[in-house]
Amino acid sequence: MVTAGALLVAGTTSDAGKSVLVAGICRWLHRRGVDVAPFKAQNMSNNSVVCADGGEIGRAQALQAAACGLAPSVGFNPVLLKPGSDRTSQVVVRGVVDGTVSAASYRERKAALLEVVTSSLASLREQHEVVICEGAGSPAEINLRSTDIANMGLARAADLPVIVVGDIDRGGVLAHLFGTLAVLEPADQALVAGWVVNKFRGDPALLEPGLEQLRALTGRPTLGVVPWRPELWLDAEDSLGHVADGVVGRPATPVGRDWLRVAVVRLPRVSNGTDVDALAAEPGVAVRYVTEPSRLADADLVVLPGSKATVADLAWLRAQGLADGVLAHARAGRPVLGVCGGYQMLARRIHDPHGVEAAPGTAEGLGLLDVEVTFDVAKHLGTPTGTALGESVAFYEIHHGRELRGAVAPLVTLGDGTPEGADGGHVLGTHAHGLLENDALRRRLLARAAAAAGRDFTPAPATSYAATRAAQLDLLGDLVETHLDTDALEALIAKGAPPGLPEVRVSSS
């Protein structure tokens, strides 16, 4: 059994399966009694969570921590980039905001950040028997290699063995794997020890000759072929990465006669879109992302999710005609829920005196809640508890907005009595992320929506979101145990990349 060591899981592309493979390896090791922790040096995502130690990290690392039986910690993701536009990102270092950068200016910070990530990894390795690291994007981005801190730059600095995962669903996976290795410099190649093929569907016998040729060409084995499992959809790092044809999850048959239809507006800069995963986990609840007004017409509940650029996304909402659809839905007495940025859009006005999002100014909200929002420079992070709709709740907050409510009642009352959010009857808003993961609260909200819509819908009393997530983590662990060469995996973690791996070059002849 593995007792000490580390491994880096890289990918041929973004969304190749790095996050889920790391979670699966972590779950497999944890179930065997290994003290294991996850690590991602640099993440780019607007899907984040707040840790008990006060900072925020990518949600994928929180899921991986759960696979290890650990609470989220800023040590698992020391650098987080949160895109606010196509050209700029907020930088979060060890859980705390540390400025805004462009792509060019961020490269200038990489040398200092390499020390941050290597020291964070070293600290984790002192605290845990095994650390499973996740790369970012692809190590084949050779234009970025000189300042890389998350892929081969990290592997070289910490002497980590590397396995590379490729998504066969994209096509050309053998070329992707070979090409990823071939463009690397020799010292980087020496750490790449094997391959994993992800999302395989079909006859394995047809793939096997290609894997044998890949081994002959590279001198490296394929450690496993992981089959496609459509039931794996929770907590995607990219908040829309798990959405197929607009549909979230694989909902079970309703308890009552009717389905409850939820339309989630797919904002251009959506953040923490996984808040609606808990709704999709309920039997009889069909959750769909929408981008056009017609898709709101037959919805029983409309959700405006979080946004990293609330005012810009509100302008987009109006330009697409979706704002009129939301207003019509609410004026007909049908439920609307806004979360974080979506909540701010439901307010009367949004004030940004310090230019937190863009130029200083005030924007008119949709006016569905008697609330005004002002952006503060400081970001509010917290993991409070309280009550909502008569139920005990726990959640987390990540926002710059400060609310000033008028006559509207709060949706949440914190443990110290502080009101939060707004309950306007059929229009509700909150800054609370993860609120819908509270099972009793979620059932009350769905029952209210069903009553307003006249649906014969009964929330399933036994649904546990935590159990649903745990079952998916166990499935990931099962896939690793069943479909990967775990003996080879253990050897890599404990001993590192084997010496003498051949260098691969692309012939110029």
Automatic annotation (TrEMBL):
Catalytic residues as annotated in Swiss-Prot or TrEMBL: C340 (nucleophile), H433
Residue ranges of every copy of the CobQ/CobB/MinD/ParA nucleotide binding domain listed in the record: 8-233
Domain of life of the native organism: Bacteria
Pathway per the UniProt entry: Cofactor biosynthesis; adenosylcobalamin biosynthesis
Presence of keyword Nucleotide-binding: no
Pfam families on file: CbiA, GATase_3
Domain CobB/CobQ-like glutamine amidotransferase: 261-440
Gene3D superfamilies: 3.40.50.880, P-loop containing nucleotide triphosphate hydrolases (3.40.50.300)
Keywords carried by this UniProt record: Cobalamin biosynthesis, Glutamine amidotransferase
Function as written in the Swiss-Prot or TrEMBL entry: Catalyzes amidations at positions B, D, E, and G on adenosylcobyrinic A,C-diamide. NH(2) groups are provided by glutamine, and one molecule of ATP is hydrogenolyzed for each amidation.
Family per similarity comment: Belongs to the CobB/CobQ family. CobQ subfamily.
PANTHER family: COBYRIC ACID SYNTHASE, DETHIOBIOTIN SYNTHETASE
Protein name, UniProt field: Cobyric acid synthase
Protein's organism: Actinomycetospora chibensis
Protein encoded by which gene: cobQ
